[in-house]
Design brief:
Radius of gyration of chain A: 13 Å
Largest interface: A-B, 22 and 19 residues
Oligomer: heterodimer
Number of helices of chain A: 0
Radius of gyration of chain B: 14 Å
Strand content of chain B: over 45%
Distance between the termini of chain B: 41 Å
Helix content of chain A: under 10%
Shape of chain A: globular
Structural class of chain B: mainly beta
Order of helices and strands of chain A: EEEEEEEEEEE
Strand content of chain A: over 45%
């Protein structure tokens, strides 16, 4: 199947710093990418939908100024956690969709963020 | 409202037992997709199956089988002759017409030797 790569796989940062996570579709063009957050022992919660060349659509309760999403090309979306705090520590997973009609979604490996 | 419910939070079985993971969904969409994913301790999501709402045929893939019952809005997953390597969290998910993938709470399966 298609490959979606996330980088970094894990990151530790100090409280107050910003962290950028990249999501790349390696062998297809992704018109839409999704960002999920998963706390320990919990399900994946959709944070936002990112469409290439336009502003991301955020789910209710997700602060758009804190979680900056950029989808500048058809193969790359980035999630920046600004002024990170310990409660932002989580597993962040992206998924990418090549077409709006097939239902095919491909997930990245996830990025584990720990904020000290 | 669109929702996926996995009522079993944790299941523990002994190797070689059969185990069924339940999934019930709610949607008013006429067209949708249902998925099962496996999430091992390493965290990545492993795709297991996708089924569209018009295809109610049950599917078998090796030791895995899925039972889609539209009448009861259920999409249950059975592992036959479970193995220790099957230990993981399993998620059922619904892809709605708006393109959003909604996950259930997950079922943590522990297969003991």
């Amino acid at each position: 199947g298609a490959v979606v790569s996330q980088h970094p796989s894990w990151v530790i940062c100090k409280s107050g710093t910003s962290v950028k996570i990249e999501c790349r579709s390696l062998d297809f063009q992704a018109t839409t990418m999704f960002w999920y957050r998963q706390f320990p022992k919990q399900s994946l919660m959709l944070m936002a939908t990112s469409n290439e060349g336009s502003k991301a659509t955020y789910e209710q309760g997700v602060e758009k100024d804190k979680f900056l999403i950029n989808h500048a090309s058809l193969t790359l979306s980035t999630l920046t956690v600004t002024s990170a705090h310990p409660e932002d520590s989580s597993f962040y997973i992206c998924s990418a969709r090549a077409s709006s009609n097939t239902g095919e979604l491909f997930f990245g490996e996830g990025s584990r963020l720990t904020v000290l | 409202a669109q929702k996926v419910t996995q009522a079993q939070t944790e299941i523990s079985v002994v190797e070689k037992e059969d185990v069924t993971l339940d999934c019930v969904y709610e949607t008013r969409d006429t067209t949708y997709y249902l998925f099962w994913y496996k999430q091992p301790p390493s965290g990545e999501l492993v795709f297991l199956i996708r089924r569209n709402s018009f295809d109610e045929q049950n599917e078998i893939s090796g030791r895995y089988s899925w039972n889609f019952q539209k009448s009861t809005s259920s999409f249950n997953f059975t592992i036959t002759a479970s193995q220790v390597v099957d230990s993981a969290v399993y998620f059922c998910a619904l892809l709605n017409q708006g393109g959003k993938l909604i996950f259930g709470q997950g079922t943590e399966l522990s297969v003991k030797p």
